Structures are given as C-alpha cells and as structure tokens.
C-alpha cells in the first residue's frame, strides 16, 4: 500500500526557490547593480489615476493591521510613528526586527539582503532556528529601544500605551505559531500592559485573514489568504483597538478609490511600491474629522495576485463606515530578483533603513497619511 504523501505548501516552496536562486546566482555586486525599478503603467493608465484625496483626516489615533509581511510592516510602522499610532493588529507575523542580520553594518548591502532573507525564512517563518534562540524577544525589544534612543523610530513611551491584537492560526504552515508567540513576548518586554494585548491563538485557521463567510476553508494556507472560519477578525481587531467601537448595521456605503501611489515615492529609489493603491472613504469622512486605519496586505496578496480580494473581502469597509475610519490600502509589487512574492519589506530589500522612519516604504506611507490629513478643498 502506498504511503500517504504530505501536501507541499506552495508559499514555502516559492520562498525556498527564491532563497536558492539568490544563493546560486546572486553575487552581491550584480544583485545591487541589477536591482529592478518597480513596474510602471503606461502613460495613459497613469494619467487616468486619481490623486489620493485630501480629507482633513485626524492622524492622532491612527491604527494599523496586516497579514504576514504586512503584519511585520504594521509593527514597523507602529514603532516608527509611535507618536500617531495607538494600536496595531499583527496577524501571523513575528516580532519587530526579527530578520535583521547580526552582520548588519558589516557586509555589503546585497550580501546583507541575502543573509537577512535567509534568516527571515528560517528564523522568522519556519522556526528552524529555535535551538539558536531565534527569535529572541528580549534582544529585539532592546534593539527597538536602541533605535528609539537614536531617534530613528518613535518613543517607546508612546508604544507602551498602544493596544495590540496578535493572531496565529493553529494550522498556519507559513509563519509558525511559536514565532507569533514571540511577538507577544516582544511587546511584553517593551512594557505594554497585559490588558492592552489580545492574543488569539486558538482558532483552527491557516495563514490568512479570517472572516465570517468569505474565502476558502478555515485551515487553508493558499491565495487569496482569506478564509472562512465563522469569525469576524476585522471586527475583533477594531473592537480591541478602537475602544469604544460601534457595531456595523449594514453593508458598506462608501467609496473605494484607486489612486496614484508613486506620487508619494519621489526620490525613493528602491521603494518597491505598486504604481497604484486603494483607499476606502466612508460617506461621513468626505467632510473631514475621521481617523485612519492602514491595512497592509500579505505576500502574494496584492491586487496583481488576488485582484480586490484583500481590499473588499477582508471586511474593513463595514467597520470603517460605523466607526468613521478611512482605510488606506497601500500596495507593493513583485520584483523578480528581490521581491518575487510581492511582500512588504521586513528583511531589508529596500535598504538598511527599512525598520525606521527613513525607510522608503515607511516614508511613502507617512506621506500618504499626511495627504489624507490635508484639509479638503472648500473645508
């Protein structure tokens, strides 16, 4: 009788192929010289894009969330701009600076990128470096304090008042649950009170955003990384982060707007952003005064990979309407050499500053927030 075969995880297989590719043909010099620029729309497509609207948004009280690489970016943006961010949802993501190599500052940029990518996959996803103490939540908390004291991220005193929602599915085969548990430890080591941390680790979910009725089966680990577990995860996120929260009473009534994202990336050479991104504007926010939530997609979850599944099916819009929240959906694109899965930068492919306020992606997103906060015409 034939033995049963173990199902391969396509996400991990793709990640491993990429790491192998980097090691085989990635001489450091050529990885740097051949670093591609983000793909461009043709001129007619770019001309048709709308600008991100000025809506007189209130940035104090900004919240963030994300899945997988988006979870890592949510944590990075939270710490970088701790003065305005008051809550973060880390869904299937590890602790801040998890992938940062011990050789940072020693080896050339491209070589460091390879080392950090390998550490990211082994130590911050598959959990194969546990015997070596990776990730070390206490060391990572100290790293955050170092960056804060150097003025490169926000004040830790602002972080410890934040509210955190941290999630790992029991069937996640992409980012192992122990890694996500280290995220909880990281925030505890920073000094976030237990009452501010909601750690949900008991649902039989795969690697995904969890919904009441959208997506694949609950335990699935595959695109579009949205699964039906009879659980309103975005609702749980908003309920914990906003305090108090208003329950939605009907379908979303606002506008989804595709906007020119490269307008916020001038002079940022390696940003990796897609040409366009999306924003959701509830009707009540057209006249100003709303807060903002930034939702970061995961790897293989941008619109090129899953169309509008993350933007429309995750469940943000209904809760945004009820709670006067503008939802910004920034987006990164795929790149054959340094980002084939369309991930946010949590290992350094955009440069050494990726964890800080000077990082290209964090800089561009802050510019988007500043645009949303600009008073609307006629206000």
Walk me through this protein's architecture.
This protein has 379 residues and is α/β, with parallel strands linked by helices. The chain has an eight-stranded mixed sheet, sandwiched between helices. It has a three-stranded parallel sheet with strand order 5-7-6. It has 13 helices and eleven strands. The longest helix is centred in the first third of the chain and has 16 residues. Helix 4 links the parallel strand 1 and strand 2. The protein has one domain.
Strand order of the largest sheet: 4-3-2-1-10-11-9-8
Structural domains: how many: 1
Number of strands: 11
What is the averaged pLDDT score?
89
Rg for CA atoms: 20 Å
Q: What is the number of helical segments per DSSP (H or I, 4+ residues)?
A: 13
User: What is the string of helix and strand elements?
Assistant: HHHEHEHHHEHEEEEHEEEHHHEH
The parts where pLDDT drops under 50 for at least 5 residues are 1-6, 23-40, 103-108
Characterize the largest beta sheet: strand count, sense, and whether it forms a barrel.
8 strands, mixed
Keywords:
3-stranded parallel sheet
